[in-house]
Amino acid sequence: MEPTALGCNQVLRRFAEACARAQSLDEGNDVIHSGTMRAGIRSSFTLAAFLAVATLAGAQATSKSITLVRVDTTRAELRLFLRDGQGRPYAQFDRLAADLEARGQRLILAMNAGMYEADLSPVGLFVADGRELNALNTRRGEGNFYLRPNGVFALTARGPRIMDTGTFAKSPPEGVVLATQSGPLLLVAGALAAPVAAPARAASAQPPSRHTRNGVCVDGRVVTFAIADEPMTLREFALRLRDEAGCRDALYLDGAISKMWDARTGRADRGAAVGPILAVVEEASKGRR
Questions:
Q1: Residue 66: burial class (beta carbons within 10 Å; 0-12, 13-18, 19+)
Q2: Interior CA angle at 46 toward 43 and 48, to 5°?
Q3: Phi and psi of 188, rounded to 5°?
Q4: What is the pLDDT of residues 8-36, one digit of tens each?
Q5: Which among 138, 203, 276, 280 is placed 20 to 30 Å from 78, CA to CA?
Q6: Cβ proximity of 251 and 182 under 8 Å
Q7: Sequence-ordered alpha helix ranges (H) in the chain
Q8: Are 216 and 250 contacting, i.e. CB atoms less than 8 angstroms apart?
Q9: How far apart are CA 262 and CA 254, in angstroms?
């Protein structure tokens, strides 16, 4: 069959339909590949690969890719990690994977999860296993973390949430199991947040920075791990998450050092050391049935 030129709306509709098909798969399947499911993790979709099947009519096609992995938090064990039993930062995914393996667990999915200081300690709030290890940061400063609105991603007794830091400070949710603070918020109820909604710069202004970037989206019980596999601006990243991935609430986690671990596909990014790590973990015995 000859390829046909698709309008932008058709492309987005097909992407949404593909995501919906992955979400409605038989829950009894164990292995995730080509539309099967494991531990509640939705199949990965690479936006560039999807867009490659069509020519966008009236829109500029791009080859830049964003990898998405959707996680059903009612079926998968979502965890936050920072240091090992000796108080040393994990820094790399393979160190975390080895530590978990020694405890009879398996690292399924991981992504760096928030900005950190030179010693890899979190810049802002960090809650793991229900324990607050670093307090909420409401100070003002320079850099992406301090762009307003700053935000918090949390897993609570009532499910995952992304909240403005000011709201979190005034009315913290009950039963916080894990939480990481970062900034800025990218999307709030489907709208671009202030830092990425700013008008285009004058031609004489310095061009915006382009980096690999990563963030997290929340839609009901589902958390989406999102990582730009090629450099892009913060605004481009936010727009891709909203317009192509269908995200409504999204928090920026970091840029330049962004990386992902996916045991299902063999992806194991390395590079600069990272601080907080958001991960999906399972008992090792489940992976050998």
A1: buried
A2: 160
A3: -130, 110
A4: 444 445 445 544 544 443 343 332 222 22
A5: 138
A6: yes
A7: 8-23, 47-51, 93-102, 165-170, 194-197, 234-243
A8: yes
A9: 18
